[in-house]
Specification:
The protein has 341 residues and is an alpha/beta fold. It contains eleven helices and ten strands. It is globular, with a radius of gyration of 18 Å. The two termini are 35 Å apart.
Length: 341
């Protein structure tokens, strides 16, 4: 099944907010929240996608014949490709009734593990979302990344206990979720975190033998503060445009953040990545790996676990093709010189 076929199969099973478009470029659901859209005038999600398309690659087939090796070490684990399934906190609220969050998390976690990569799980106002996600990650031997929101200290402590008990590949916090409209003024409260608070969370994860990832970094200054706080990785992310209108695309800020973060922090990226060629572009800008979210929901609604696996294989095949056509025999050999201009 191709992604286009999965999207066609999802129509009628998904919605009413998501249209399961053949290309998930943010236009059909602009501004639709609840739903998969973005905040305000609804331009950021499309800008994310558009920015990757604006990056040209340098084709170079003057090299020995090889089969591209798409394997990559991300968060200390060897993955079959540098792509992970991004987190969704409340699937039914945004996408429809076919999956509750537990069923969706089980689908993507098991599919990702079967394809030798990782899925990230989300968090929400319903405490059971995090509890059940961590139980699933634990049942898979830690093959997943629980993502906690920036709650108040007491709530955060409880949720970290759950996440760390799963012995996951890493624990993440989507610090930008402080801007989600449906978290504002709710209980438990969520909000911004200081560098000192993040340092304490990172230290707690390290004491438990887990990596800590900070998701939602969009400036070089924030990357430097995150590095100083001891995080192991950051995700360059504007939350798909769902937390603040008018932000730049992730592709526009990625290279500068990679340079600022330095060698000690893995830099991941999400936002509008839809093909293996987009993954190649992100790696050429310096990312260690990518997260893809919305299309995997469509793939799950269109084909269940088999659909998620099919889309992962499609991304891997497209990435290998781009590598072979640009002269990169392994992921480590992809460089900025492979981008035009």
């Amino acid at each position: 099944m191709t992604y286009s076929e999965l999207a066609a199969a999802a129509r009628g099973n998904i919605g009413p907010h998501c249209r399961a478009c053949p290309v998930c470029d943010g236009r059909a659901c602009a501004g639709v929240m609840p739903g998969p859209g973005d905040k305000g005038v609804g331009r950021v999600a499309h800008r994310n996608w558009e920015a990757w398309q604006a990056l040209r690659v340098n084709m170079d087939t003057l090299h020995e014949t090889f089969s591209a090796d798409t394997r990559a070490t991300v968060l200390g684990r060897e993955l079959s490709l540098p792509v992970m399934v991004g987190p969704v906190g409340d699937v039914q609220r945004h996408y429809g009734e076919r999956y509750d969050t537990v069923g969706y998390n089980r689908c993507v976690l098991e599919a990702a593990a079967a394809e030798d990569t990782l899925a990230w799980t989300g968090d929400g106002l319903d405490a059971s979302i995090m509890t059940e996600a961590c139980g699933l990650v634990g049942s898979l031997g830690g093959a997943g990344v629980p993502t906690v929101k920036p709650w108040d200290d007491a709530t955060l402590s409880r949720k970290l206990n759950e996440a760390l008990s799963a012995r996951p590949a890493a624990v993440a916090m989507d610090i930008d979720a402080a801007g989600l409209p449906f978290l504002r003024g709710q209980q438990p409260p969520a909000g911004a975190k200081s560098a000192d608070q993040i340092a304490r969370v990172a230290a707690r994860c390290h004491d438990a033998g887990a990596r800590f990832v900070l998701k939602g970094v969009m400036t070089e200054r924030a990357a430097l503060r995150a590095a100083d706080a001891g995080v192991d990785a950051i995700v360059v992310s504007n939350h798909g445009g769902r937390v603040l209108d008018g932000t730049p695309a992730t592709a526009e800020v990625l290279a500068g953040i990679v340079d600022a973060a330095g060698e000690g922090v893995e830099v991941l990226v999400d936002g509008g990545i839809r093909s293996g060629l987009d993954v190649f572009r992100a790696l050429a800008l310096g990312a260690r790996g990518c997260l893809v979210c919305r299309p995997f929901v469509v793939a799950a609604f269109g084909g269940g676990e088999d659909g998620v696996r099919a889309y992962l294989r499609e991304l891997r095949s497209e990435l290998a093709d781009a590598m072979e056509m640009c002269g990169a025999s392994s992921v480590a050999r992809i460089s900025r010189e492979m981008l035009w201009g």
